[in-house]
Amino acid sequence: MKVSVIGASGFIGQHTVRELLLQGHHVKAISRNGLNFSDKNLESFKIDVYDCSEEDLHLIAQADALIFLTWPHLSNFKAVEHLTETLPQTINVLEKLIRYGIDNIVFTGTCLEYGLVEGAISPNTPTAPTTPYGLAKDTLRRYLEHHPSLRYLKWGRIFYVYGKGQSKTSLLPQLRRAIHAKETVFRMSKGDQQRDFVEVETVAKRLVSLAELKTTKITNIGSGKPLTVKEFVEMEIKRQNSPIKLDLGFYDYPDYEPMRFWAK
Amino acid sequence: MKVSVIGASGFIGQHTVRELLLQGHHVKAISRNGLNFSDKNLESFKIDVYDCSEEDLHLIAQADALIFLTWPHLSNFKAVEHLTETLPQTINVLEKLIRYGIDNIVFTGTCLEYGLVEGAISPNTPTAPTTPYGLAKDTLRRYLEHHPSLRYLKWGRIFYVYGKGQSKTSLLPQLRRAIHAKETVFRMSKGDQQRDFVEVETVAKRLVSLAELKTTKITNIGSGKPLTVKEFVEMEIKRQNSPIKLDLGFYDYPDYEPMRFWAK
Question: For A26-40, what is each residue's pLDDT tens digit?
């Protein structure tokens, strides 16, 4: 099928485009900066969906499915702009894309929609976000669920995704940088929080399956297995056979995350 | 205490200002058009909070409590602008008012936050709005509940308010107009939906009590008694001793309301 991917050059976007091509789909890759690879089934368009022409939106809407991966302000989950800028902008773009013909949307939600709920979390767990980021995504989902012209909404709540192309400010790239720079100590939180770390390839596969699905579905995208942050970090240190020591407890726990939670 | 009322010249606003004065409070009445009455404890300011100066916002924020009653687009609960315009505008205004000193806010929610839940609804019932209007108010409440600088949030979900000064397009004013014009037939829905009709004076009293309350509270503002729409209409016809007949079933039921629900 023909799939438009918004945010195609991002971390999850690049993996998703490759997985779509692998599964034999035709891809319209939408991003501000374009892609650095090509394929006979890939069309790449430099478009900022928040600031583009109606023609661009018509072009994006000519597809069997849309995977929407863009979301600004990701560096600060507590920024009010998630609610006052990104949410209205995203609704306005989606309204037009739906009006121009898209009836099948995959959107990436977040485990932060659940707020401070602990343990194995099923997709039916009532959402209770405590951050503007989690609240904005949850509000978008509640809006789209009742949209009269959207036929299939697939909402995937992503847990702690990691892998190639991840933001340099994330935990694993920071650790790898420190190991590569032969630093002796890596500063982190106490590290006994249990998280659900999921590889970006797994996320991409799940998103592609969701795009192919002809039904409405809310789901979690995680590994389903809890791991402490410390265990996750130690696995990488062992894998690289590095002598780096951990300065556990240097940073506080984030106040917007529960101590232990993972996807069910 | 000193109370700022935003939306002071509106239907609920006028009654709330009078009730505040009756209870001995000092009132800063904020509205676009001003008030048509005066009082020694009443200061009236013509301000559009969505388009005003920082000085105006400072003036509003110099108060012990804020009762916020403005909300545009009320004629269409399904308008997406509740989410894309009113919600972000309202958050931006509230952010500034909180920054300038307000820590005690009464905000009027809506029974539409509950969506299609039937029966006696307690304030603890999980919200499930199906309209952009209900969703925008519910999202604002969830945002304010986690606001680090807001001390007291009082959230009152108003049911079917009626009374003096109500919009001419509402049920009771329409009926009164028809009776006054000596029309023979009044067109309405089947009328067997059970609603919670509450007098605006009761709503005003409840809002003033909430302003005085020094705690965070989510509550319903209704009569607590179900009444069918037909019974409600017939009471007014009887009161006016009018010979008008009802054309029941002329209009469909609204699709965003449950068949029977009332405040608990």
Answer: 999 999 999 999 999
Pairwise CA distance, residues A171 & A229, whole Å: 9
- Of all residues in chain A, the one with the smallest CA distance to B82 is A88
Cβ atoms of A66 and A8 within 8 Å: the answer is no
Burial class from Cβ neighbours inside 10 Å (0-12, 13-18, 19+) for residue A35 reads buried
The two structure tokens encoding residue B27: 């009132």
Amino acid type, A44:
S
Question: So what's the ipTM on this one?
Answer: 0.92
Whether residues B80 and A87 touch (CB distance < 8 A) is answered with: no
pLDDT of residue B73: 82
A102 and A190 assigned to the same domain: no
The answer to whether the CB of A261 falls within 8 A of the CB of A109 is no
Taking 90 as the threshold, does the pLDDT of residue B243 lie above it? yes
**How confident is the model over B55-70, as pLDDT tens digits?**
999 999 999 999 999 9
Compute the count of residue pairs across chains A and B with CB atoms less than 8 Å apart. Answer: 44
CATH number for B149? 3.40.50.720
CA B102 to each of CA A100, A118, B64: distance values in angstroms, whole numbers, following the listed order = 44, 34, 7
What range does the domain containing B87 cover? 2-162+197-221
Q: Judge: A95–B80 Cβ closer than 8 Å, yes or no.
A: yes
Q: For a pLDDT cut of 90, what percent of chain B falls above it? A: 98
Span A180-200, pLDDT tens digits: 999 999 999 999 999 999 999
| Residues 81-140 of chain A whose Cβ lies under 8 A from any Cβ of chain B | 83-85, 87-88, 91-92, 95, 126, 129-132, 135, 139
Both B128 and B11 in a single domain?
Answer: yes
The reply to whether A190 and A124 lie within a common domain is no
A154 near A211, Cβ under 8 Å? yes
